[in-house]
Amino acid sequence: MGLYLSELVVIxxxxxxxxxFLAVWxxxxxxxxxxxxxxxxxxxxxxxxxxIKVIFKRTISxxxxxxDWYDELKSKGHKFGGVYSFxxxxxxxxxxEYIKDILTKDFQHFIDRDAFSNEKDDPKGTHLFNIQxxxxxxxxxxxxxxxxxxxxxxxxxxxxxxxDYMIDYMKKTVQDGQxxxxxxxxxxxxxxxxxxxxxxxxxxxxDSSKSDFRIRGxxxxxxxxxSGLRIFIASFSPEISRKLRLRAMKDPTTTxxxxxxRSTLEYRKKNNVRRPxxxxxxxxxxxxxxxxxxxxxxxxxxxxxxxxxxxxFDTSSTTMNFTLYELARNPEIQKKTRDEINTVLAKHDGKIxxxxxxxxTYLQQVIDEAMxxxxxxxxxGRICTKDYILRDTDVVIEKGxxxxxxxxGLGRDPEYxxxxxxxxxxxxTPEEKAKRHPYIHIPFGEGPRNCIGLRFGLMQSRIGIVRVxxxxxxxxxxxxxxxxxxxxxxxxxxxxxxLYLRAEKx
Length: 506
Ligand code: HEM
Fold this sequence. Notes:
binds protoporphyrin IX containing FE; single chain; 19 helices; 3-stranded antiparallel beta sheet; globular; alpha+beta; CATH 1.10.630.10
């Protein structure tokens, strides 16, 4: 009798499993008809991943898939096309005119970024990058004055001090006969910078035993299966994530930064201390009356200083890392860049100033060329917030549709950049730039929701590169496995291989 019962239970369970599988299969097949019904060209999906190729490692990312989608649609002559990640529909833009429409001209239909936030349950995890409309506009207006060129100049000296720590560390490493772990060194430099200007804290990232900030920075981009699952649910169904009360940020990270902001705030108030940094600008806004448009809440300060930390340290260190990689592989371009730097510095009494950096136009071409091949943010995404008709078509993009752009695909497209793998800063002379559509090279995004930290990111990257090139001659260490390849596991660009540089003191 006992055996009979358990057999029945097994049959019941099997029935439920098969029925659930069938229900999911039918639902997915229904979803996969979406683009076809609309008459939009699409890439054939397969159950259950849709068009996603890379899943379930430590975390999930569709960043490199977006380039493959771009390449496939482009090779078939399409200006845009539909794909699916699991059941979720996404529109991929290929033609730069459509990219311009969505990012700038018709921005009112695409205000939100395709990034998860949960303002109700997670106010400290809701910042300028992931906040949805209508909150985004007023927050952007409040934070914009923090990034003017005047404010950049105010912070300039703090950045130079941090670059001294980096150069000291590099000199010691070279003296010891060791190669430089480029990514780690540059991430430590930018952690020190952002710790100093966003939190008013000396991070000591080059003294690894002490640097809580560097440890936090590393842990933000690594995770276990649980955080992988959290990101997975958030990227495929923000609605379910909000119902499950998931947060955008890990709890220990939020607690750590909340404490840093709280203690710094108390210290400055008590001791009447003011410093030229982002935190001070935010604290001043916090002091404004609550009804004032300028007022920011304590939670907003925490959320946005965390954001500055994430957005500020990894993007700039990635920019520098790949720029140095290309310069180390191309000694003539490295020499030309160094020669320009020395010529400009000679005009400025050997001093690195904000103005001197603006005059280094070849350096900017080098950085642009590195960002073309290695854009720190590999994909850009928007959510359609109001139904929209794609220009010259009768295709209606419905509210809620995710729209994707692949800077990596555009940057390595041979139509725009012949022999795309070749590192050639001449592609970014003013004459060459004028020949191209301005929305082909968009490493900082475009339109009202572009990168607010562009000036700061470039200033930080230029300082780092100038300091390194004026102190060392670089080549690639034999320890580095070449060529570098892009990891498909990260939202921000990372190489699968570590980059080791061999440096010779100048
Ligand atoms: C070289 C360094 C950097 C690169 C390449 C970069 C790139 C980008 C890109 C591609 C976007 C998305 C733009 C779009 O969707 O159109 C973005 C947004 C953003 N970035 Fe950066 N970024 C850099 C540095 C920084 C720094 C230093 C900060 C702050 C201190 C920062 C803060 C932000 C913020 C807050 C947003 C969201 C803006 C909004 O939604 O209104 N970024 N960045």
